[in-house]
Amino acid sequence: MNEAIATIKNTRRIQAQYDVHAKKAFGQNFIIEPKVVEKIADAAIASPNDLVIEVGPGIGALTQFLCEKSEHVVAFEIDERLPDILRAEIGSDHLEILLQDFLEADIDAEIRARRKPGQRVDFVSNLPYYITTPILFKLFEAREHPDTITVMLQKEVGERFLARHSDKAYNALSVITAYRCRVKKVMDVSRHVFMPKPNVDSMVIQFTFVDREPVADEDLFFEMVKACFAQRRKTLYNNLQAWLADKEAAKSMLEKSGLEPSVRAQELELEDFIRLYEENYETIR
Ligand code: SAM
Predict the structure, then answer these.
(1) What is the pLDDT, as a whole number, of residue 57?
(2) Which of 119, 121, 151, 194 could form a cystine bridge with 146, CB 3.0-4.6 A?
(3) Is residue 194 within a helix (H) or strand (E), and if so which, with residue range?
């Protein structure tokens, strides 16, 4: 591998040599600590045979390590100034660059076109923070979804995904994520290892998709979970009543699932929401 791109010296050199300055509108904060990118690449890639999808390679800090560890890295980048720099600086035939807005990409088709039979797909990104949620939901909803998703995101957002019931950060997103994936923290990352330095600290977390028997009509299940958290201070009974516009129906839902009327959504675990939904599916569908 060439000298690491992820240093202050090389980031400054690349920016000066190609006259590219970080664009705030694209959420560009480049990593300047090689140990951090190496650890992300190690956590993200299980085997050199894995197909790796990266969003936002930037000037290649992380991409360079990904190309060392996998034979096929597909990197989506929105900024047209960057592909030539990436090719010149990384110089690896493991790298395929797609100059495209990831949110516009047909992720199912892109994965289908490249995944070999039985091949694992690892998604990895130091996310552009302004579109963290749409990127993650796009992946959660994809049919050809990756096996694992390893992402750097704002610490506070990471905490929401890791939150367990009764934590302050626990919300509908935590429940929906738990339904789809197991989540674990890879590491905390200080704001000081980015250039330019953001105003917040970060965290790397990893989602692993779980094989679960799906509930009937997942969209309705997700709608119910969101409705249960609609007003955090209110009881589950109040929130269900507002969702169904029917007091008696809300009361009967709780009774059927053995839940007290005074309980709040944040006290329930995923399995409680599944039970609440399945016991009442015939009534609410
Ligand atoms: N991976 C590099 C690093 O770690 O130093 C750069 C990460 S930077 C936080 C986010 C990257 O995402 C930038 O390169 C930015 O141009 C790119 N980006 C922003 N919006 C994007 C989009 N919609 N589709 C693809 N890439 C995007």
Answers:
(1) 98
(2) 121
(3) strand 194-195
Task: Give residue-wise pLDDT tens across range 134-193.
Answer: 999 899 888 898 999 999 999 999 998 898 888 888 989 889 889 989 999 999 999 999
- Give the whole-angstrom CA distance, residue 201 versus residue 270: 29
Ligand 1 atom with the smallest distance to the CA of 26 is 19
Residue 164 CA to ligand 1 center (angstroms) comes to 30
* Residue written as token pair 């980031």: 11
Backbone angles phi, psi at 272, to 5 degrees: -65, -40
The answer to whether the CB of 5 falls within 8 A of the CB of 89 is yes
- How many angstroms separate the alpha carbon of residue 55 from the centre of ligand 1? 6
- Summarize pLDDT for 202-228 with one digit per residue, the tens: 999 999 999 889 999 998 999 999 999
245 in Cβ contact with 269 (< 8 Å): no
ipTM of this predicted structure: 0.99
Please give the distance of CA 63 from its chain centroid, rounded to a whole number: 18
User: Ligand 1: which residues within 6 Å by Cβ?
Assistant: 26-31, 55-58, 61-62, 76-79, 101-103, 126, 128, 131
Per-residue model confidence (pLDDT) at position 164: 84
3-state SS class at 74: strand
